[in-house]
């Protein structure tokens, strides 16, 4: 098994084009040879197989163009990069194969129904079909290896196109063998099978591309690996609303993680940075990660949708909170004395944490700190969002 290798975008583009151009030259030679020999020595199946090879040439040209675009780096119009062009290219390539296969199916069925007596194919047709089988199978291994190295679905799709051509050459060769024994209609039947192979391969490309363009999530195994990497980061209590999607060979991830409700914003931010680092280090396909930091499960209550969040009802922010607390407490000196005020938004409540300087601990107003806290809670109990105030004495080092 060949593992994806580290390359710059320029190196990937050059390597992909080199592999594809080599394949297109071989396809062009084989296509011409099979159509020429098939026409002279009376093998409809070999002609169809030659057309199949020329569709490979067209797809190779298409791949060269798409890889030039898809390996360009992000820009202001495409901040996530250009990998979607590769997906679009795969869909277009598949559509071309479906159209080609459909036209060949129609022509071959018409020929079979016509019932015309076909002459026995000549011996050079065996040589052409056999050569095609060997060369196309070799091209499959060469191109597929490159596709795995580049982690490129488009290159791997092109490799499977080569293998389909190898298989179709095998079908043609079998048809020719039967034709040699007088069953010339088998040659047309082989042509029909090859036409169906072309159309089927095309449909697979289109289907996979449409699934990706619809931003379907990645397979369960990979999603489980992503989830495990998130949860193994220290400080992550749990995660939910994991969303994944592919963009070419890249995987984009969105996730909500839950952390301790009393962490500072900077510590929470550092935890999200570690989540992103852990994912990129351990899941090579992951290119971009968006982490939403929660101090609790913010999914809607009694909501079966795991992606639903309680954003409809929001709590007031600092300016409004301090204004309302100042009004009901009537203890403006408290707010003025505070070295720092932290607001904890937990379970739809706001819990103020007020830090006072050490020297105020001996002041009469703060002597009985518990009684003072109770008086604050009583005065603010009618505020719908109010939780419970915590008073602390200390100095901040920043």
Short description:
With 398 residues, this protein is mainly alpha-helical.
Descriptive overview:
The chain is mostly helical. It folds into 3 domains: 9-213, Cation efflux protein transmembrane domain (Alpha-lytic protease prodomain-like, Up-down Bundle); 220-294, Alpha-Beta Plaits (2-Layer Sandwich); 318-393, 2-Layer Sandwich (Alpha-Beta Plaits). 60% of the residues lie in helices and 12% in strands. It contains 12 helices and 6 strands. Strands 1-2-3 form a 3-stranded mixed beta sheet, covered by helices on one side. A 3-stranded mixed beta sheet has the order 4-5-6. Helix 4 (124-150) packs antiparallel against helix 5 (153-180).
How is the largest sheet built, in terms of strand order? 1-2-3
The major beta sheet can be summarized as: 3 strands, mixed
- Order of SSEs: HHHHHHHEEHEHHEEHHE
- CATH architect. name of the largest domain: Up-down Bundle
Q: What structural category do the secondary elements indicate?
A: mainly alpha
Q: In percent, how much strand structure appears in the residues?
A: 5-15%
SS element count, helices = 12
Task: Give structural attributes.
398 residues, mainly alpha, Alpha-lytic protease prodomain-like, Alpha-Beta Plaits, 3 domains, three-stranded mixed beta sheet, 6 strands, 60% helix, rod-shaped
Topology:
Layout: H1 9-40, H2 44-70, H3 84-114, H4 124-150, H5 153-180, H6 185-213, H7 220-231, E1 238-247, E2 250-258, H8 265-282, E3 286-294, H9 318-329, H10 332-337, E4 340-346, E5 349-356, H11 364-367, H12 369-380, E6 390-393
Parallel strand pairs: 2-3, 5-6
Antiparallel strand pairs: 1-2, 4-5
Helix pairs in contact: 1-2, 1-4, 2-3, 2-5, 2-6, 3-6, 4-5, 5-6, 7-8
